[in-house]
Amino acid sequence: FAGIALSKSYTTVDRGTVGVVTRFGGVTGVVFQPGLNWRTPFIDEILVVETIIQSYESSDEPTQSSADYTDIPVSAQTIDGQQIAIKYTVLFRIPADQADEIVQNIGLPAAVVENVVKANSRSLCRLLAQSYTAEDLYSGEGVFAYENEVRSSLESVFALRGIVMEDFLVRKIDFDEDYIRAIENQQIAQENIETRQYEAEAAQYEKERQIRLAEADAERIKLTAQANAEQQRLLADAEAYGIEVRGLALKEYPELVQWEFVRNLVGVQWGILPSDGVTPLIPLPEFEQPVLTPTPTVPPVPTPVPTPEPTPSTP
């Protein structure tokens, strides 16, 4: 008897769990932490409660899931009347310091899952989906908003029961096949509209580009014409100025006319200028007067005249 009593006087608690001590069926309020713990033999009983994170998951194949607790998807209806099936996961845990109260008020972890996690998560998923349209839940942003709303609601409900909700995750939302085809056709039509819009914008852009090129070409021609006109004006001004300068120079130095005349002579060996007060502008070469030698007269040689032969008489 002493050996049996000794073996009943202690218990070990594994990591990730706590031991809720009950005496004659009632919760004593004593919670054994992981390790070796002493108890009153034959009187105290230990209820093991897991305190690690546990998962509750709804899926099409519950038996194929590795979650701690599994269930089927939640059927719901959107605000616009579309039927949907929601697949989600709830991650939760029972805090060690609340284990005795949870066991007292709710029960062991299986009862916690059934009466708190499952009941509230399925109900809130179904009710809150009615605030969204099917299109909202079909796109990414709408799903994120729905997921955050359900998560916030579950955190409040779990906190009232002393349970910590770690996370709520929407895994997938299934729609009716007719709705999926309608959405796909709508998306295809929208893409076609956007494509035509892009093509129209591209054509408009090309038209504006051609207009800008034409305007740039016209501006280039205009600037070129202005530059040519300015160049001609500058050349005319320069020529007029040159004429004016030459006129002033000729007015002050008339001899320049003779200089220009003589300078532009081509192939002239000599020239005569007036001697009255005029100095030759170029040196004239001196030419020797040629000596005329008399040519001797040769008498002409008489040309012999041929003598005609006598003509024979006719008998």
Write structural notes for this entry.
- The protein has helices at residues 2-7, 99-105, 109-129, 134-138, 140-160, 177-252, 255-263, and strands spanning 10-13, 17-23, 26-32, 35-38, 44-50, 54-58, 69-71, 74-77, 83-93, 164-175.
- It has 315 residues and is of the alpha+beta class.
- Helix 3 crosses helix 5 (140-160).
- The termini are far apart.
Defining key terms:
alpha+beta; 3-stranded antiparallel beta sheet
Radius of gyration: 63 Å
Order of helices and strands: HEEEEEEEEEHHHHEHH
Q: What integer is the average pLDDT?
A: 81
By secondary-structure content and strand pairing, the structural class works out as alpha+beta
User: Percent range for helical residues?
Assistant: 40-55%
Number of helices: 7
Strand percentage, roughly?
Answer: 15-25%
